[in-house]
Automatic annotation (TrEMBL):
Protein name: Muconolactone Delta-isomerase
Swiss-Prot/TrEMBL keywords: Aromatic hydrocarbons catabolism, Isomerase
Entry's EC annotation: 5.3.3.4
Pathway(s) served: Aromatic compound metabolism; beta-ketoadipate pathway; 5-oxo-4,5-dihydro-2-furylacetate from catechol: step 3/3
Species of provenance: Nocardioides luteus
Gene3D superfamilies, per the entry: Dimeric alpha+beta barrel
A Pfam family of this chain: MIase
Domain annotation Muconolactone isomerase: ranges: 1-89
InterPro entries named in the record: Dimeric_a/b-barrel, MLI_dom, Muconolactone_d_Isoase
Length: 92
């Protein structure tokens, strides 16, 4: 099942710089592991924003929820999920 996910990152300005750097480093490792596993199929920066659009390929709503809620930056994100279905005119 494919899902379009938009993540807007809102890290508080007063967060300890060490905690910030550690959280971002853990987020990167977590995201790259999921990409290698084929679960996180696309990851794009939205130009000019601390936000991304992503496409996930997972088995269920529950699996996606588990992945998203496990993001180290999850406490500092607004997440918007859109389930994707096949378009009848798509050729691939
Ligand atoms: O920077 C972001 O968009 C947030 C998050 C998503 C992947 C990652 O490494 O960080």
């Amino acid at each position: 099942m494919l899902y379009h996910v938009r993540m807007d990152v809102r890290i508080p300005h007063d967060l300890d710089p060490g905690v910030r750097a550690d959280t971002i480093a853990r987020e990167k490792a977590y995201a790259q592991d999921l990409q290698r596993a084929g679960k996180w199929r696309h990851l794009w920066r939205i130009t000019g924003e601390y936000a991304n659009v992503s496409v996930f390929d997972v088995e269920s709503h529950d699996e996606l929820h588990e992945i998203l809620s496990g993001l180290p930056l999850f406490p500092y994100m607004d997440v918007d999920v859109t389930p994707l279905a096949k378009h009848p005119s798509a050729i691939a």
